[in-house]
Amino acid sequence: MASLALAVALSVLWLGSSVQAQSTLDYVPGEILVKWAPGQVASGVAMARDHVAALTLRNFPQIGWEHLQIDPTMNVQTAIQKMLQQPGVLAAEPNYIVHLFATLPNDTSFGWQWALNNTGQTVDGVAGTAGADISMTTAWDLRTTSPNIVVAVIDSGITLNHTDLKSNLWVNPGEIPGNGIDDDGNGKIDDVNGWDFVNNDNDPSDDNNHGTHVSGIIGAKGNDAYGIAGVTWTVQLMALKSFNSSGSGTTANEISAIQYATAKGAHVINASWGGSGFSQALKDAIDAFPGIFVAAAGNDGTNNDLTPQYPACYTSANIIAVAATDQNDALASFSNFGTTCVDLAAPGVNIYSDISGGSFAYMDGTSMAAPHVSGVAALLKAQESNRTTVEIRSAILSNVDVKASLSGKVATGGRLNARAALAAIAPFAPTALAGTAAGPTQIDLTWTDNSPGETGNEVQRKTGSGDFATLASLAANSTSYSDTTAVEATTYTYRVRAINSGANSDFSSEVSVTTPPAAPSGLTATTASASGITLVWTDNSGGETGYEIQRKTGTGAFASVTTTAANVTSYSDSGLAVETTYTYRVRATGSGGNSAFSAEASATILAAPSGLTAIGLAASDTILAWTDNSGRETGYEIQRKTGTGAFATVTTTAASVTSYSDSGLAAGTVYTYRVRATGSGGNSAFSAEASATTLAVSSGGGGNCFIATAAFGSPLAVEVQVLREFRDRVLLPNAPGRGLVRAYYRHSPPLAHMIERHETLRAATRGALRPVLWWVSLALASPALALALCGGTLVAGPITTVLLLHARRSRAAHRGGRRMP
Amino acid sequence: MHAPIAVLALTFALVMVGCGGAAQATNYVEGELLVKFRAGVSEERMAEIHRMLGNRIAESWPGIRWYRVLLKEGVTAPEGVQQYRSLNEVEDVEPNFKAYLGTPSQGGPTQLPQ
């Protein structure tokens, strides 16, 4: 009744308990833990917190940690990465959820399984001692199942239709059930769940109960609200019947069963049988089995070291020999022992498990102790399938609960502890960790995952001689990670380890990666002289070792021009050719590689204008003309000064303009000019300077065409405008024309003044200018035709005649001491 | 390799003496032996030996080079052991022992016969 009451109580408890998954890394969303550097000032802490919108939930000043609530829209990993970038933050990690250590299945008879959870309950009329169990409930916190592990039960068979077992039976993947064909070619037809070596048929059903009882201990379906829970809740039980209904078998049948298990890839064999006869054949078969072979020590209450029992006493490296303990951790009275032949003890008294007919029963014996070890071995193999048999055996034997009652009785002096054994199975460490800088703020890591059983991988990072801190917790089987929180021109060191529920692997070897500096930006190229271009850029890096400047012309390839020191942001390129477009790009150099290139920038050194001529036209006007030497200018800039004053820009023109009329000037003043071509990449050098002096008095003619203005009465007369256009378009652009214009303006004003005052002269002049106007108009419309028709005579003749006449009169007047009227 | 054979032979001899030749008391399967030939002995030679002795192979486990042999009618297991042991080609020979499940509450014997 006491047992029943306990079972009811446990059932109620189990209804409220959940089976904790062992493979997840749970943490509280919206919360992180941060460790601050010693002496971190409050303002710095506050600024760092602001990056994740954090509120302080708790402080742990003794250890320098703080519990923060983060922005609810931000995931925990992002918040951790942001915090790790803040100065003064030594470490940041999730607020992990810690599970209560005890996984209790809801199997209805679990309360009677004191071997798995001994609370001191009375079982089968015997009171136990709390804790005198194999710590199964805490082991289940780490792992409850081993679905890919095959445990061969060489025994009296298994009740194949037992509700507690049928879902955990091994199914031969190479055999099609019931087709009467030996599909897998092993000489056994329809060996679906195993084989009956006693009757040599394919029905390994149990006709004794022993094999079913053993199988239930190993792998009765767990947490299915029925019957008992096996040590492993899900497993593949291979039924190999080598013993008849009376529990008798032969060495030959045992060998056949072991060979079958070997051929079919079983990971564990449970051998709850034995005897005193040494069989080399049996030992050979055990030696040839690559998995764990768990043997019962025997039930004679004798010392196996003195009276060997086999297979327990074989020296095979894969054998674990098991003695039996009772509910109070005492060696069972019937159990054989031996500090050489027997490795450890496990519960073997009043063991409740499955039997034939779908029922349950208590049994005693080392036969019941051995399957506890077999079940644990299956869990260990599932935890890290690449662990060898020797490693699994060692994990079991090295993690027993040492008991005084077992001292001098078994080799380890202890009783099986499933939790400790499972926790000792660490995943294999990742290898071949490699890292590359994918940019100034990203480092890509790759590694080799050597562990099939890990539940995740942990990436740690440090800078300089600092401490490693967890950077990321990744899923199982991950083999790469991109650290996007890196800072440019910084060296980081990484390491990775595999983690699982029980233990973590060693760390991989470390790898250090230096990020390249940030690329420069804002590159400009400007013409600085007749052969130089100045580059300017923005330094975006705090850790570059210098800058490399590259240059190309046209569609050519870039070539390095020079490298500079760190923090330089300009460079003057010299010795360049005019009228050539140079394209530049710049990148920062660093110990971890170079940055990307800046955007390109181009500049062209324009050819300076030449042949600048300045002529004073009137009291307030000058006229400039120059030679355009560039095909790439966007215009011209005209600068002017008087006396020793400074040049100032008068105007800018469009491209290809070669003359300019300056007006609004002071009479009788010397003006000095210079001109330069302008362009998008800078301006050319200035032309040579040229000076002109405005006339002292007004000519009266206006429009600078003094004679024509006097003859036609207005500077706005069409004839005057035609002549002015001829002057600007035809004469001024060439040297002879400019000489002609200069001579005309020097001598024509007095003549114009005279013509202006005599109507007769005005009429005569108009008449004389008619052919000139005709020819000029023709020349403006078609210069070639004008030259062909007149050869210039019609133009040059009258003007030259007038000019010569005037000159002669002037000289006479000068000699006579009077001016011409 | 000879030490286990000697131990086995002694054990078996003791078994025979202890049992006084009473068939019903044997803890091995009468009329059967487990035989292992030395490495390098050909299949033909092994077959010849069995044939010469009037025996036949009932079962083989090539991976460990052991054979279960059915003895000629009238030959006991101890006699068969002696026959095979006298041959240089034989590495090991032993009876096909009976074995028992080991639960004291079940009442079955847990030891091989002495």
What attributes characterize this protein structure?
A: 821 residues; alpha+beta; Alpha-Beta Plaits; Rossmann fold; Immunoglobulin-like; seven-stranded parallel β-sheet; B: 114 residues; four-stranded antiparallel β-sheet; 33% helix; disordered N terminus; disordered C terminus
Protein architecture, described:
The complex is a heterodimer of chains A (821) and B (114). Chain A is of the alpha+beta class. Helices cover 25% and strands 27% of the residues of chain A. Chain A folds into six domains: 27-96, Peptidase S8 propeptide/proteinase inhibitor I9 (Alpha-Beta Plaits); 110-423, Peptidase S8/S53 domain (Rossmann fold, 3-Layer(aba) Sandwich), CATH 3.40.50; 431-514, Immunoglobulins (Immunoglobulin-like, Sandwich); 521-602, Immunoglobulin-like, CATH 2.60.40; 606-698, Immunoglobulin-like, CATH 2.60.40; 701-821, no CATH class. In chain A, the strands form eleven sheets. In chain A, strands 8-9-7-11-13-14-15 form a seven-stranded parallel beta sheet, with helices on both faces. Chain A has a four-stranded antiparallel beta sheet with strand order 2-3-1-4. In chain A, helix 8 (366-383) crosses helix 9 (389-397), helix 11 (706-712) packs across helix 14 (759-781) and helix 13 runs antiparallel to helix 14. In chain A, 48% of the residues are buried. Residues 1-25, 699-703 and 813-821 of chain A have low confidence and may be disordered. With 114 residues, chain B is α+β, with helices and mostly antiparallel strands. Chain B has one domain (2-98): Alpha-Beta Plaits. Helices cover 33% and strands 29% of the residues of chain B. Chain B contains three helices and four strands; from the N terminus they run αβαββαβ. In chain B, a hairpin with a 4-residue loop joins strand 2 (56-61) and strand 3. The longest helix of chain B is centred in the N-terminal third of the chain and has 18 residues, at 2-19. Strand 10 of chain A pairs antiparallel with strand 4 (90-101) of chain B, so a sheet runs across the interface.
